[in-house]
Amino acid sequence: MPRNACLECRRNSGLDVGTGTASEILREGELTQTLVLLYFQNFHDIHFMFDQTIFLRRFALGDIPKVLLYAIMALGIRYSHAPFQNPHLRPHWGEPLYHQARQLLKEDFDHPSLTTIQVYVLLATYNLTFGGARKAWMFLSFARSFVAILKLDKPASDMDPVQAELCRRLIATIILMENTFPPSLGLARSLPPISPLPQLYSEEEFDIVKSSAFAYPNNRSSMPSPLPCVTQEILILSGIYYRVCQLFRESDTQQFAPLQHKLSDWNTSLHPSLAYTQANLETHQQKFTLRSFMYMHLLYAYIWQLTLFDSLDWTLSGSSDADNGSTLLIHQHASATTSIIQQVWSLAHLDLHNACFGQMIKTAQVILTYLLLTTTEPRVMATAQSQLLVLRDCLIRVKAHCRLYNWVFDQAEWFLRIVNQADFKFHQNSQRWKSILQFQVMSLGTSYERLDYETAGRSSGLESLADAESLEQHRKEQIPTILTPSYIAERHVRVRTGGS
């Protein structure tokens, strides 16, 4: 595996890349390779369609189509330390490369090929993370249609094992993106889900296949004892997640029980090498699979939180439901989310930034906020507040690269301000509050009309509930009061004097 891409970036500090146009970047071959490395480093939790070793070998031989290169660099450039002009516009650095890739794609936009599918997936990811979700869905639908036309999900039995695995990984990438697409949009799939799921090699198995030293079977399912594969587990969880989101939107909580059993069975059968332990964290860091390992466990915790979300009683009548089994469980999974984020950051300075991660953070934030508002125990208050601060710090880090997270952060801040307003009332049976909660948990930015760094992606929903004090605090970008030490101190006084 090539060395850490961030170290490569620091070597590029003397490059003359001007404003970062496509031509200026391609003029510097070393920077081009760095941006490719940054793509692999930052997107392998959701993209499996390329093998880094094979790709870099083809890149060195000049065998990568420009349209593919531009699309990859558009994703990787936001994590570069190269001396571009206007560094505060980092979240927009990929625009010239993205538009150049779109321009080149026009020649083959209706020509089904492996490269065209890959480019559509890359552009869909760019739009979903940095642009607009509806356009992303359009590109992803094109990719899915081309897979069906080329019958890539039914490869020939005599196909080269390496090429067959890359096809399976491309299909797996599309399946994951379809299953985890922002559910609030309610966009219908143009084709039925791909079934059965492709059976992927683990990285160790694929390394053996690529070495050609052994005659490995073309299909992993025919192997006597396949090794555990993080990507395969993510695919399984994404299918459960897709179904849970359908039921969540329909408020059909009675159907969650079978899915909760599936989650429990999945966790019970998980290979010990994939369990969340400190030893496994360090092992996956060494294997360069920590991002995928982190995503797998966050997705598991997130799905549990969605299935238990209705167990929260937002009447806040003063009676604690801390002893309720479902409430305890949902708090545990929200706490696990913050613990994973904090541990991985401490270990490897790594954050996720895919669209699903934004929903994970907002959901955990709502649950931990509920705990902070309802508990009367000082220790629990302090723990919940510190966990909320972990989530907030993470959003601040991520939004420096992904402009989608300007919107996620903004939405999260408004929620924290509103729930602490003295005149704000919660009603469990209030349709308005239920819709607000569902919006907070399920929605993400869908389009960006402006490229201004400060305003791109701002929403206009939750602000309508803000009072004058909240509006002024938000204008000054002050930390929400509920996250300050004074909030805990005031709550302690109210508890001691018999207040709520």
From TrEMBL:
Answer yes or no on keyword Lipid metabolism. no
Any idea where this protein resides?
A: Nucleus
Keywords from UniProt, A to Z, are: Metal-binding, Nucleus, Transcription, Transcription regulation
Key word Transcription present? yes
* Annotated ranges, domain Xylanolytic transcriptional activator regulatory: 38-238
Signal sequence range: none
Q: What is this protein called?
A: Xylanolytic transcriptional activator regulatory domain-containing protein
Originating organism: Aspergillus keveii
User: Which lineage ranks, top first, belong to the organism behind this chain?
Assistant: Eukaryota, Fungi, Dikarya, Ascomycota, Pezizomycotina
